[in-house]
Amino acid sequence: MLPSAPHPNQLDQEKKLAAAAALRWVQDGMVLGLGTGSTAAHFISLLGEAVRNGQLRVQATATSQASEAQARELGIPLLQPRRGLRFDLTIDGADELDPQLRLIKGGGGALLREKVLANASDYLLIIADSTKLVPQLGQFPLPLEVVPFALPWVLDAVAELGGAPVLRPDRRNPQEPARSDQGNLLVDCHFNQIPDPAQVAAQLKTIPGLVEHGLFLGLARAALVVQSEQVMAVRP
Ligand code: 5RP
């Protein structure tokens, strides 16, 4: 018999635990990158509390309009993108991570901004529940951000690479396609397994109109993964 999937409440508890552990990595005065998704939202909420209590003074940039709105509402001082801006620490979730800390991200559609901030960060810390750590990437469909005009050719090209691409529907209005914060389309590409993520990433980078893919390689420095109610640090 297959092991049963953890209950959603248990997963949410794990996400909260990981977020609380990540808050201890934040030092006064840091410039932070804020991730996107339910785990990152827990972190932003705890960070907002610490800022409100005067425990921490930080400045931050968010990886999505949703995270930015949450941070603004909680009174976290926000920085807009500008030349020279770097982040001491970015805290973000992931859809899958392997023991070498290679990631699949973009389940929340924010892969492009997430990769931009990860790249501008001295330290990318991933926070994740117990379902995210996998021996090999690829069970989770790989998110792609695609310029609308290029969609048919991008679909052909990723199919040639062995993926099964599906245009992501909008969650609230499934007749319409989902759009990224940039107004681009989101495609979920089913590979089932990605034994050589570097090779797939290199191939995807050659496809015109494919703005970004959700493979994050060599970017994460550590992950806090909750397993059996314990926070475990994973380093590559
Ligand atoms: C958003 C992401 C998220 O980090 C990823 O989807 C994980 O989300 P959650 O914390 O809700 O499980 O990459 O683009």
TrEMBL record:
Annotated active site: 114 (proton acceptor)
A GO molecular-function descriptor: ribose-5-phosphate isomerase activity
InterPro entries, A to Z: NagB/RpiA_transferase-like, Ribose5P_isomerase_typA_subgr, Ribose5P_isomerase_type_A
NCBIfam families associated with the record: PRK00702.1, rpiA
Organism, as annotated: Hymenobacter taeanensis
Pathway this chain belongs to: Carbohydrate degradation; pentose phosphate pathway; D-ribose 5-phosphate from D-ribulose 5-phosphate (non-oxidative stage): step 1/1
Family: Belongs to the ribose 5-phosphate isomerase family.
Residues that coordinate or bind substrate: 36-39, 92-95, 105-108, 132
Function: Catalyzes the reversible conversion of ribose-5-phosphate to ribulose 5-phosphate.
GO CC annotation: cytosol
Catalysis performed (reactions): aldehydo-D-ribose 5-phosphate = D-ribulose 5-phosphate
Entry-linked CDD domains: RPI_A
Upper taxonomic lineage: Bacteria, Pseudomonadati, Bacteroidota, Cytophagia, Cytophagales
Keywords: Isomerase
Subunit note: Homodimer.
Gene name of the record: rpiA
Pfam entry (one): Rib_5-P_isom_A
Enzyme Commission number(s) of this protein: 5.3.1.6
Full protein name: Ribose-5-phosphate isomerase A
PANTHER family: RIBOSE-5-PHOSPHATE ISOMERASE
GO BP terms: D-ribose metabolic process; pentose-phosphate shunt, non-oxidative branch
